[in-house]
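FORM 7B: Structural annotation worksheet

SECTION A. Query
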Amino acid sequence: MDTIWLTGAEWLAVLRIGLGLWWLESWRHKDKKTWFEGGGITWAAGIAAKHRWNAVRGGFDVVVAPRPRTMAYVVAYAELALGLGLILGFLTPLALVGGLLLNLVYFVLMIHDWAEQGQNSMMALISVVALFGMAWQTWSLDDALGLFQ
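SECTION B. Predicted structure
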């Protein structure tokens, strides 16, 4: 593979780190007080209640609605963990798959509103490219520790 300036593996590392920064920004920009008091989950509950698929409405009512505070913490700290994991290149394949799953959950929840899908589409695409390109091979703790060789 011919590239300009960096090697292919280094460009994949740049992509991985950029995606990690994106996840970190998703965590950073949240109004934590409002989010942890249930603001984000309340918004999602309104979307889920009007969802066209019964499985989404029912799944939200069973999994998320009974524990809004816990789910708010799970979402926020998953974003933080994904961001740090991707930036540092630690457990990178797990972080990429976890991030892809979070993006897919959001896709399904917001399936009726395509205007909301741009950021998640790009994050999911980067996750797939970084996963199959094995973006943990350069500039990562995974590489330094000999993980996922």
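SECTION C. Observations
The helical segments are 8-28, 32-36, 39-49, 54-64, 68-88, 92-109, 118-132, 141-145. The mean pLDDT is 92.

SECTION D. Sign-off
Analyst initials: ____
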